[in-house]
Design a protein that fits this description.
262 residues, alpha+beta, 49% helix, 2 domains, two-stranded antiparallel sheet, Nonspecific Lipid-transfer Protein, Chain A, Four Helix Bundle (Hemerythrin (Met), subunit A)
């Protein structure tokens, strides 16, 4: 897949680093309350148990201090809008690593990761480059990806356990906006307006661009439904049938454009 055409939205690294910590705290509180039966239960992520998923979440946040401890690369190689399409390349490695994590004492793991994260990001600037396996990325952009991972996997944990883990508003906003911006970058145009209130509005798909009034092709949904569609957790037809997506206009069908990451 060719790199996405860049329409870069600004993400405040100070707010994002706080959002990552807040969402990680919400997950930590829930994980500490899970019973052994819940932790050993299945998830919608293949063969991963809830324990595997909880360990994976900790590892995703722990990647920030680990990468900051490495020497900074010479040049940026990976743009934020290209990250979602590149995640599939690492799926096998991530699965193998997650299965190898020591998840016997999750409370201790989460406490250590929280402390390491706070210490590492305290004095780091958003433009600091990190040596990801997919290519060098700025810390500010990488923190947005951590917010995405946390929000998506919070939803996975809620689905698996019936818990009601809350979503930090800034983390949910960052996740929603990034995935909306990726759609607009991959399918540029002005024929369709995608609305995910209260966080994002983007235009996409080639065709006549509207400039005033209500556009002829509009898709609207809530943030969590949008995130599930964009990550392949649910399908377009199912969400339209359930009235969680409204789509008006002959071009307002995103079924062939989703998911954006898996």
């Amino acid at each position: 897949m060719p790199p996405a055409k860049k329409r870069t939205r600004s993400h405040d690294p100070v707010k994002t680093r706080a959002a990552v910590l807040a969402q990680f705290g919400h997950v930590r509180d829930a994980v500490e309350a899970f019973t052994t039966a819940q932790l050993d239960g299945p998830t919608r992520l293949g063969e991963w148990t809830v324990r595997d998923l909880a360990a994976h979440v900790a590892w995703m946040v722990d990647s920030v201090p680990r990468l900051l401890a490495d020497p900074a690369p010479a040049a940026r190689e990976l743009a934020l809008l290209d990250w979602p399409s590149r995640t599939a390349e690492a799926a096998g490695r991530i699965d193998a690593h997650t299965r190898g994590l020591d998840a016997a004492d999750l409370p201790a793991l989460y406490a250590r990761v929280r402390d390491d994260y706070e210490a590492a990001v305290a004095g780091a600037g958003g433009e600091r480059l990190l040596p990801l396996s997919l290519g060098a990325m700025t810390l500010g952009d990488f923190l947005v990806t951590r917010a995405v991972e946390l929000v998506v996997h919070t939803d996975d944990l809620n689905d698996a356990t019936g818990a009601a883990i809350p979503y930090d508003r800034q983390a949910l906003a960052a996740c929603t906006r990034l995935l909306a911006d990726v759609l607009a970058a991959r399918v540029p145009g002005g024929a369709v307006e995608v609305r995910v209130p209260p966080y994002a509005v983007v235009q996409c798909v080639e065709g006549p661009r509207h400039t005033r009034g209500t556009p002829p092709n509009v898709v609207e949904t809530d943030p969590l439904t949008w995130i599930r569609l964009a990550t392949g957790r649910t399908g377009w037809a199912a969400e339209r049938d359930a009235a969680r997506v409204s789509a008006s206009g002959e071009r307002a069908d995103l079924a062939g454009l989703l998911p954006l990451m898996g």
